[in-house]
Inverse folding.
């Protein structure tokens, strides 16, 4: 015997409402709105006891990882101003400020 109603809903999509796009969270490092890809970064590395996460662009996270050790990131904690005092990070943030939120580029190796 055929079902009177489908258990997964009808195929009539005329009653579906348009959803407003979700607001994008700003990147923790550069402050630009995040794009399609969001990386949830631990400002204090998990290996150093960090639990909090912040939204970042992949390119911004790669820049932090290339310029700081886990110990240095632990010392800065959740305060982004200390990271922005680094000339390499300041130069990067100024450079990426006018780029598209989904912009990506190859990054330099760690400079340690």
């Amino acid at each position: 015997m055929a079902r009177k109603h489908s258990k997964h809903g009808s195929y009539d999509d005329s009653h579906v409402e348009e959803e407003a796009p979700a607001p994008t969270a700003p990147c923790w490092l550069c402050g630009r709105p995040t794009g399609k890809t969001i990386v949830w970064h631990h400002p204090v590395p998990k290996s150093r006891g960090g639990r909090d996460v912040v939204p970042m662009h992949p390119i911004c996270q790669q820049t932090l990882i290339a310029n700081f050790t886990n110990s240095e990131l632990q010392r800065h904690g959740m305060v982004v101003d200390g990271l922005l005092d680094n000339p390499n990070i300041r130069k990067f943030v100024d450079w990426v400020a006018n780029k598209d939120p989904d912009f990506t580029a190859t990054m330099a190796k760690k400079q340690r």
